[in-house]
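agent> Task received from the user: take the single chain below, predict its 3D structure, and emit C-alpha cells. No templates, no multimer pairing.
agent> Plan: (1) validate residues, (2) run structure prediction, (3) serialize to C-alpha cells, (4) report one or two observations.
agent> Step 1 OK, no nonstandard residues flagged.
tool_call: predict_structure(input=
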Amino acid sequence: MGKIDVPIGAGPTRAPKSSKKEDTKRESKKMEKKVEKKAANCQESQVAGLKKMTRLGMEAKKEENLPEWYTQVITKSEMIEYYDVSGCYILRPWAFSIWDTIKNFLDEEIKKLGVENCYFPIFVSRLALEKEKEHIQDFAPEVAWVTKSGDKALEEPIAIRPTSETVMYPAYAKWIQSYRDLPLRMNQWNNVVRWEFKHPQPFLRTREFLWQEGHTAFETREEAESEVFAILDLYATIYTDLLAVPVIKGRKSEKEKFAGADFTTTVEAFVPASGRGIQGATSHMLGQNFSKMFDIGFENPETKERSHVWQNSWGITTRTIGVLVMVHADNKGLVLPPRVASVQVVIIPCGITVDTKQEDRNRHYELCMQLEKELAGNGIRVKGDYRDNYSPGWKYSHWELKGVPLRIELGPRDIKKDEFVAVRRDTGDKTSFSRANAAERVKNLLDTIQHSMLEKATQEMKSHIKECFSLSDLAEELDRKNMILAPFCGDKECEEKIKTDSARGTDAEPGAPAMGAKSLCSPFDQPRAITEDMKCIHPDCSKKPEKFTLFGRSY
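)
tool_result: status=success, residues=555
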C-alpha cells in the first residue's frame, strides 16, 4: 500500500466545551433528521411497492378499452407471459391445456378418417420455397430467413417454414408412384413462423404459432372434395361443441382464397366487442396445381397413362384460444366453457374462522375432500382450494378471473343441511343442491353452462348480421359493428373497390374501425336465392351477383 501523507502537526483536536442546552438542541435536530429520513425512505418503499404490486382483479372494461382489457384477461388469468421477442409469447399451462383438448379431439377424429401423423423439418431451402411462385408470393413478406451460423454467413439462406406445402410435396412425389399408393393422408402438429406484420396480438396475430396442417392426395377430384368438407365440419365442431363459439361455414372469394388453391372453405367467427370477423380455420381444395408443379403422379389403372393426384391442405391454429377469450370473457376476467376448462369445478371451504375448533376445521376440510374425490371419480376435472393464507372472498375472485365454470362453496350451514352451493361463472347464478347424487347434479349443470354459453354467443352473432343492397348502407352497418350479407359478383377488382369505397379513412391496423369491408366468405347457408332484379353491392359493377357474401372488418 502507498503511504498517506499527513500534514505535520496534524492530530486529534479537542472540541470546545458546549453547554447542556446546546447539546440537547443538537441532539434534537439529529433526531428530527433521522425521523425525516426514515419517513422519506418509508414513502419511497411504499411507492416502489405499489409499482411492483400486481393487482388481482380486472381494471380495464371490455366496452371501454378492448385492447387493454384483452391484455389483462390473458395475463391476469395466467394464460400467457410476454417474451422479449416481439410477436412471440409463452403459453402457460392454463392456455396450453385448451390447445391440448382441441388437439386430442381433432387427432382422434382425423385418424378415424385414415389420416396419419408425421413430422417434416422446420427449415426450407430457397429452391424448394420458390418452386411454386404463385403460392409463395403471398407468404414472401412473412418468411423469416436464417442467414448465419455463428459468425459465418451461410452459402445459401434457409427459410423457416411459413407453411409446409413446399417442404412435404417433394417427398410425396417419391412416395406416390401407383394408384395403390393412394390415398396418402398425412398430418403434422407443429409450429410455423410468419414474421412481417406491425400489430401482434397474443393468440390472434403472432409471429410464431402452433397448428396442425393436413396434406392429403387422392386419385379423384370427388374424393378430395369430400374430404375438404368433412374436415371443415370437424373444425366447426371444435368451435361449437368445445369452445361454445358459433361459426359460419362458407367459401372464400377468389381474392381471399389460399394461394395456389382451386377453392378455400372456411369457418368464420365474430367478435361483437370489436365488430370484427375472424377466420377460425380453413380447408383448401388444391386441385392439381401443386401435383403438377412437384410432379406428384401415378399410372392410371384404366388409361395406363400418368395422372396427377388431387390434393388438399387444411389447418387450425392456437388462434382458437384468442377467439374463445374475445367472445366469452367479461369484465371479471376469463369465462371458460366446461369442455375445454382444465379445472371445471373449484371447491372452496368457507365459514371457517379463528374461533373454529381444530376438530371442526378438520372435519370441514375432510368433507370438502370427500366431495372432491367423488366428483373426480366421475370424470369431473375438479380442484379443492384449501390454502389457509387466503380468505374465501379472495379465492372467489381468483377463480372467477381464471374462468373456472363452476364454484362450489361449502360452509358449516351447508354441511349441517347436507347441501352445497354452486355458483356459475357465466351468469353468476347461485343455487343450493342436496349433497346426494352430487356428481350427477354437477355434470348436468356443466352441460347446461356449455349449452347456455353457445346459445348466448349465437344469438349475439345473429343480431350483428344485417342484409344490405347498397354500398352506403353497408358502410353504415360496418360502423355499427355489424357483418353484412350482400349480393356480390365475386370479381377480384370489384371486391377491392368495395373495400376501398366502404372505408372511413386510413388506419395503421388492418381491420380497425376506419378500414373498409373485406369479404369473409360466401356462406353455404344462403339467406335467400339471388333473383333477376338483384345487383352486385358495388354501384359501379354491372356484373350479375353470384351469391350473398358475408362482408365485415376482420382480424
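agent> Step 4: summary for the user.
The two ends are 70 Å apart (CA to CA).
agent> Done.
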